[in-house]
Amino acid sequence: MTTQTLTYTQFIPAPIEEVWSFFSNPANLKKITPPDMQFTIVSRPETTELFEGMRISYRLAPLLNLPVGWVTQITSVDKPVMFEDEQVEGPYEYWHHKHTFTAVEGGVRMTDRISYRLPYGAVGEMIDTLVIHRRLEEVFAYRRRRISEIFGIGQEV
């Protein structure tokens, strides 16, 4: 299967330090994940400060209520403008997520760039087309709504 890339951008009407504090704290991921995914952090370091090499283990049910284990590792941190995580164990053959925060007038432009690849070649491509891509779109649409509820709806100037 070829690597797929999705990019989502959202304006957040808050100072970059506040936005960074929220998104760099793994405990807040549950607040922006659809409840039907039953997202739970299984283990993570006690700190709320991200660091390169940090591993976080999750349990979630992304499809058909089937539980999946997932371990990500923080591979790069540039506080307060960017961090990246990659799947170490989980359902994808490859998963890389880059979170970028750019201070702009009146707030922050946040960009999520996800690159992923499913296993199983042509079968994986078909599963992506029929299910996975759509589910990721739903997850990030939910995140957009929750982020607007948490930070307020602003308009980039």
Automatic annotation (TrEMBL):
Domain Coenzyme Q-binding protein COQ10 START: 12-138
One Pfam family matching this protein: Polyketide_cyc
Gene3D superfamilies recorded: 3.30.530.20
Similarity field: Belongs to the ribosome association toxin RatA family.
Protein name per Swiss-Prot or TrEMBL: Cyclase
